Amino acid sequence: MTILLYLVPAALGLGLLALAGFMWALKSGQFDDLEGAAHRILNDDDLGKK
Amino acid sequence: MSDSADFSGFLKTGSDGRTLLELAIDGIVSAESISEIEGSLRQIPGLVTARLNFTTRRLHTEWHDHACDPSPAIRTLERLGYRVAPFVADREESFEDQQTKWLMKCLAIAGFAAINVMLLSICVWAGNVSDITPETRDLFHGLSALIALPAAAFAGQPFFLSAGRALRRGEMNMDVPITIGIVLALAMSVYETAHHAEHAYFDSALMLIFFLLSGRVLDHAMRQRTNAAAANLAALHTPTATRIAPDGSLVHVPSEALSVGDRLLVRPGERLAADGVIVAGEAMIDESLVTGETQARRVSLGDRVYAGTLNGDATLEISVTAAGGETLLADIARLIDNAVSAKSRYVKFADKIAKIYAPVVHIAAALTAILWIIAGASIHDALIIAIAVLIITCPCALALAAPAVQVVIAGALFRRGILIKSGDVIERMAEIDTIVFDKTGTLTLPESSLVDAASLSEHALMLAGRLALSSHHPLARALRDYAVDRFGRLKPLTDAVEVPGQGIIARVEGQEARLGSAAHCGLAAPIWHDGASVIAFRCGDEAGLITIGQSMRPDAQATIDALKAKGYRLIILSGDQQSAVEEVARGLGVSDFSAALRPQDKLDHLRALKQAGHSVLMVGDGINDAPALAGAHASLAPASGADVTQAAADAVFSGRRLHAVVETLALCKKGRAVMRENFAVALLYNLVAVPFAMAGGITPLIAALAMSGSSIIVTLNALRARQVRGIGE
């Protein structure tokens, strides 16, 4: 059962990583405009102009 | 004279020294608007970035310094066909913003903890029926406690705080039994872990928090979206006034910034922002929004005029006699306040259930403990079983039953252009049996619209529509709306020039095109007959007149028929003259109507109906309707209505279609039906689960399955509320 000593911290660590990622996304305003983001990806105005 | 606008009230300073300005934008129909709007603003001097939020329909702009001039940006957007208004989020909205972020944070933490604890729990459940050693189980329970306790302490705050507030007021809400359930589940699990027992409820407590929070986050997100849309409407409708400074220059100011004695310039087609006395000019004015009267009134030097009045045909100068809280509006606002306080006593269905549910559950748990002790169980076992009863009855599904439906219904209404202000509106709308309509602006279109253009060819009409894009005159706006409806999106003419007081000139296809007064186009015609106005168009040899006037909403008849067919009693109450109201009522086939009513009279009518046991829906747009809207059982106002009217109404609908009334009632009725089903499902779950719990047969595995299962059923059932047959998409 010593395998638990590696696996449990690894599982928790990965979970915490995802949690931190979500918190960062929330803080930097990634969830402020969910609809716009879906459309912006199709917008290629920034290509070819420069 | 050139105009300048005063934006100082709307500018904010950003963290890096830049100046920030938020703009509310109306007229966004597709995602192309994102690149169109942002692209068109790239050349504006002083502008650093512009980013459109497609969800809230707001444009965030950043400028180099405080001396920026946003007017070119606004003019650019207006030329593209958007309506733009500067915007400042009020305290309530920024608070809601923070609340949503906080709830999302709680949700993320609850989700993280629930997943990891569930991972450990499943190992224990599997081990309990096979070969787990007590040491490993204790380790897993201990790890679960380490994750669950801090996570629950943080993520459970929304419930703990709300329950605390309710208890301090001596009241009871759903959050009280929720809090008790969570705290007991955690406390018992810690105790059991310390005593090397087989079962712990850490996963149940966290799943419970996670499910309830997702309901709240959805509810908040929906409310935030409707609130943002409502705030945009308000910003776009905020009356601005043109103040004449002592040196003769003109400054645009928001109407709140006016004070007594200011001199204002009111152009044709503008609404008055304050009560005042005319000091120069003579014009026909339209007071329909204030009094309901459709016949225009001629006013001249020395006459009193009121805020909300529409100036018809000539430029006026007025001296402000009352601004802000002292206007005629303030009297009406007092009537509204009285009417609203009567309505706030409405008790939501969920709260009614909470009042009974909590005591019943707690008594059941107490009885369980007593009966087990009498039956000879040890106090420890009896308590464990009683706590299991409290955990299993923690009203997860019950707490989701109403909000889940509210979110779905509010979303379905939102997509149809109808904004509801709070969840209990759905319940009140569903109880309606009588509908009272205002006439002007409600049954009829709020703005003048095109009545007749038979003398022009289709091509000429489209050209006239393109010319109209360059004018702010209300008649041009009516023509523009008609042309856009008929021909789709129109391109403005780039070289169009407005001749003040006369019309517009531009060159198209090598010819000169004119739109404006009859004289401007070389024609002879009367202006203002029977409340209708005429504009003229000429392009080369082709010329003709376009009549603009009051007309019924296109689907008024169909809406009235549909409501009659559903068995609603219909009444028209109007401030307009007897003859005008009678004509409309007869035309629509509504036999019950009253005319020439003052605001107080309308309210009295509603009170009489209420006394007779009717639940009345009031549909109206005028300032004179506002007290009646606030006093009715439920109320609906068009987005074109006055500010106070929208504030007083429970729901606001945009667009020209009166059919919104039918849709609102149908969706709310469906919503209430599904809500009741949900409560039935949640209670049924309790009826089945509680006897098991009282008998001591509930293990953590069964608790987790039963609680998540009932929550998911309730949420999925709520999604059905979207589908209502017979009202179209």
Tags for this model:
heterodimer; A: 50 residues; mainly alpha; elongated; B: 729 residues; alpha+beta; Alpha-Beta Plaits; Four Helix Bundle (Hemerythrin (Met), subunit A); Rossmann fold; seven-stranded mixed beta sheet; 23 helices; 50% helix
Lateral strand order in the biggest sheet of chain B: 1-8-7-9-15-10-13
Mean pLDDT of chain B: 81
Instruction: Estimate the helix proportion of chain B, in percent.
Output: 40-55%
Amino- and carboxy-terminal Cα gap of chain B: 49 Å
* Radius of gyration of chain A from CA coordinates: 19 Å
Number of strand elements of chain A: 0
| Beta-strand percentage range of chain B | 15-25%
Can you give the mean pLDDT of chain A? Answer: 83
Q: What CATH architecture of the domain at 93-238 in chain B would you give?
A: Up-down Bundle
CATH topology of the domain at 93-238 in chain B: Four Helix Bundle (Hemerythrin (Met), subunit A)
List strands and helices in order, with pairings.
The complex is a heterodimer of chains A (50) and B (729).
Chain A: H1 3-27, H2 34-40
Chain B: E1 3-5, E2 12-13, E3 19-26, H1 32-40, E4 47-53, E5 58-63, H2 71-79, E6 83-87, H3 91-128, H4 134-155, H5 157-168, H6 175-194, H7 202-237, E7 240-244, E8 250-254, E9 263-266, E10 275-280, E11 283-286, H8 288-291, E12 297-299, E13 304-305, E14 310-311, E15 316-322, H9 328-343, H10 349-374, H11 379-392, H12 396-415, E16 418-420, H13 424-430, E17 434-437, H14 439-443, E18 449-452, H15 458-468, H16 474-487, E19 497-499, E20 503-508, E21 511-516, E22 533-539, E23 542-549, H17 556-565, E24 569-573, H18 578-588, E25 593-594, H19 599-611, E26 616-619, H20 626-631, E27 634-638, H21 643-648, E28 651-653, H22 660-694, H23 700-719
Task: Offer a concise description of the structure.
The complex is a heterodimer of chains A (50) and B (729). With 50 residues, chain A is mainly alpha-helical.
